[in-house]
Specification:
Structural class: alpha+beta
Number of domains: 1
CATH architecture: Roll
Number of helices: 4
CATH class: Alpha Beta
Largest sheet: 9 strands, antiparallel
Helix content: 10-25%
CATH topology: 3-methyladenine DNA Glycosylase, Chain A
Number of strands: 9
CATH superfamily: Methylpurine-DNA glycosylase (MPG)
DNA sequence: TTAGAGATGATC
DNA sequence: ATCATCTCTAAG
């Protein structure tokens, strides 16, 4: 078990803006079949918080729908959605059930299973550097093999997809405006490790 | 190195 | 029509 222990559900049972910075340095792990050969993991270096109450950019802003129902479920679960018709994005659901809070995972430092990650991201003819494997919310889901079927899965179980704590702390936590949204741009709810070369922008 | 456009489909 | 994106191509 190279990844440490999964974070407990109580970790997620807080507002997304509190959970988000604490997720920096943790490991996002996908162990699809319990074998070391297919396990891949990356250290979280960039996240964004989305809140159900008064956040115009959140998918949960207008209440539960078929797509966002995981956001309103119990904390410590995964919310996965399709964006622009072709990319999957992964969130950690936060706050008590009934509150539509989540943290979008935007970038990882690849840690384990890097050859498999490169194979899963082999669509491009261009040479994929290690920095290009997980430096974006849709890149990292492709590298880890996270898709719509994983929406709602439990992150606190060591099986399948989990977020684990191995004791490492982020070096340089920085707060800024969120990326790629047209509303709520004034809210400084993006958190990243400025010392990492693996964040989604340079 | 940077800017722009195309891909591609669910959502509300 | 919008969208919590990525990639390639072309221009400078």
């Amino acid at each position: 078990m190279p990844a440490g222990n999964p974070l407990p559900r109580t970790f997620y049972e807080r507002p997304a803006t509190d959970v988000a910075p604490d997720l920096l340095g943790k490991l996002l792990v996908h162990d699809p079949d319990g074998t070391a050969e297919t396990l891949r993991a990356g250290r979280i270096v960039e996240v964004e918080a989305y809140r159900g109450d008064s956040d115009p950019a959140a998918h949960s802003r207008s209440g539960p729908t078929a797509r966002n129902s995981s956001m309103f479920g119990p904390p410590g679960h995964l919310y996965v959605y399709l964006i622009y018709g072709m990319h999957w994005c992964a969130n950690a659901v936060c706050a008590p059930a009934g509150v539509g809070d989540a943290v979008l995972v935007r970038a990882l430092e690849p840690i384990h299973g890097i050859p498999l990650m490169a194979a899963l991201r082999n669509r491009s003819r261009r040479q994929t550097s290690c920095r290009d494997l997980c430096s974006g919310p849709a890149k990292l889901t492709q590298a880890l093999g996270i898709e719509g079927v994983h929406d709602g899965c439990d992150l606190t179980s060591a099986e399948g997809i989990s977020i684990c704590d191995d004791g490492r702390m982020p070096a340089d936590v920085t707060q800024a405006a969120r990326i790629g949204i047209s509303r709520g741009t004034e809210l400084p709810w993006r958190f990243y490790d400025a010392s990492s070369p693996h964040v989604s922008t340079r």
